[in-house]
Each structure stands twice: as structure tokens, then as C-alpha cells.
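Full entry
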Amino acid sequence: MESSPSSNPVTPLGPTPGPDQLDSIKAQLDLVLLALESLVGLGSEAMLEAAQHLGLQGLMGDRVTLWRLRQASPLRKGQGRKKLDVDEARGLVLVSVHLAQQHQTKIREAVTKLEVVTAKQQPPHRVAVLGDYLDAFNNFYEERMAPDDLPTPDTLRDLALKLLVDLLFYSQSGGRRKLWLALLERSR
């Protein structure tokens, strides 16, 4: 696992986003965490433990602070209560990657099963781990995101599966930089 630098846990992971990119980054980071929650059943406690392990208590030291960071996503119901700054975005990247690395085995298992069903042209929801993941992702998305931003069921399924594959890349060596650069690229 990648360890964080002790002097500044949120050292730059790559280029710094402009203020106009942060809204997109907020939404994308929340979706990455939503995918992790859906696949491995982790909650705010695991995120806070990861933050503490990484020395990020100053950015997200309690449930309320973490909730406010997650609510910064423009996709969320009641969003906009907290503006996300660059250090907070980097902190959420570090936490996301740390958690993905902790659960790499489960992520890899799910992606392997997805590859098998895709090759056989079978629906992913018929495989237990993928069906459970898709159900949890759909339920979390529908309960937390603004109703006017709800995508079609097929679009939501495709998003969930893309995020699952992305998690595999973020769980590997260099995952922090991969996630950060993907966030920047998608926010353009």
C-alpha cells in the first residue's frame, strides 16, 4: 500500500484543478466512495479510520465533517452546503485509494466475474457479487442523489460497472495519481 508523506498528507498528486473543475471532481469522488460502499459495505467509520491512518484528521476528523464533504457533490440532495477545496479533494482521493487497496481482493473478484459474464454476453446482475453490488449502488444512488439528476436504470448500471472497473485501477500501485489524473481529465 502507498503510504502518505508524513510532513503533508495532501501533497500534490499532480496538476492543481481550477475552481471550475472542483464541482465535477466533488461529484466524481462521491461516486467513487459510493461504489466502494456498495461493493464492500463500508461506511463512514471506515472512511474516518482511513483518514486517521493517513493523518487527515484535520480535513475529516468526524462524521459531520465527512458528511459535509460528501454533501459537497452537486449530485446530492441538499448539495452545496460545503465547498470542497483542493486539499479536501486530495484528502478524499487518498482515503478512496487507501480503502480500495484494503479491499483489492473483493474488487478484483467482482471485476473478474464481470469479465466472465461480459464474455458470455450474460447480464451481470445474475452473478451474486455483481447483483448485490448493483442493487446496493442503485439503492444508495436513489436515496442520496437529487431526484432530478437520476439517470435511467441502464445508465446507472453502466456507471456502477465502470466505477467498479475504475476501482481496480485505483487499488493498485500508483492509484492515487491515477485517480487524481482521472478526476482532472473528466472535469474538463
